[in-house]
Design a protein that fits this description.
By secondary structure, the chain is mostly helical. The protein has helices at residues 5-37, 46-77, 84-95, 112-144. Helix 1 (5-37) runs antiparallel to helix 2, helix 1 (5-37) runs parallel beside helix 4 (112-144) and helix 2 crosses helix 3 (84-95). The chain is elongated, with a radius of gyration of 19 Å.
Length: 148
């Protein structure tokens, strides 16, 4: 397996860079969405605050799903899976660091799984951080706003 280490790094690290760009784009979109709609927090309503945070959450989840798709596409292009759906499932398990082990790639590309898991842990963590910043800001704004 060590003979494939360099190849896996040469494939995995650029894929991680692509995922970082995807994450940055979706985080920027989520922040922009939040800023444009933060004005709705001038009146304290559960519905307004919740819908704003759900919008941020959905954008961040879309970013993570897009990254899973990037890895799945790589796995598919490498011939590890015949169907994109199988590659996407396997990629999801790796990205979320679940590690079911029900699907294992060939020895030639097996080291890409841990690289994707590192990528997923970092990107899910970044998404969580952005969501928490939005949540805290929304709570502060809505707490200072009058009730309807």
């Amino acid at each position: 397996m060590n003979q494939y280490l360099l190849n896996n790094l040469l494939l995995g690290l650029p894929t991680m860079a692509v995922c970082l760009v995807v994450q940055a784009l979706l985080v920027s979109s989520a922040i922009g969405y939040y800023r444009r709609r933060a004005a709705t927090l001038t009146v304290r309503t559960f519905r307004g605050t919740t819908s704003l945070l759900i919008g941020v959450l959905l954008l961040l989840v879309l970013g993570n799903l897009a990254q899973i798709g990037v890895w799945a596409l790589l796995f598919r292009l490498l011939g590890e899976f015949e169907q994109f759906g199988d590659a996407f499932y396997h990629s999801s398990v790796n990205f979320a660091t679940l590690g079911y082990g029900d699907v294992v790639m060939s020895a030639r590309h097996r080291l890409l799984g841990p690289l994707e898991a590192i990528n997923g842990a970092l990107m899910i963590g970044a998404s969580t951080a952005i969501l928490m910043v939005a949540y805290q800001d929304a709570l502060q704004k809505s707490a200072g706003a009058p009730r309807p």
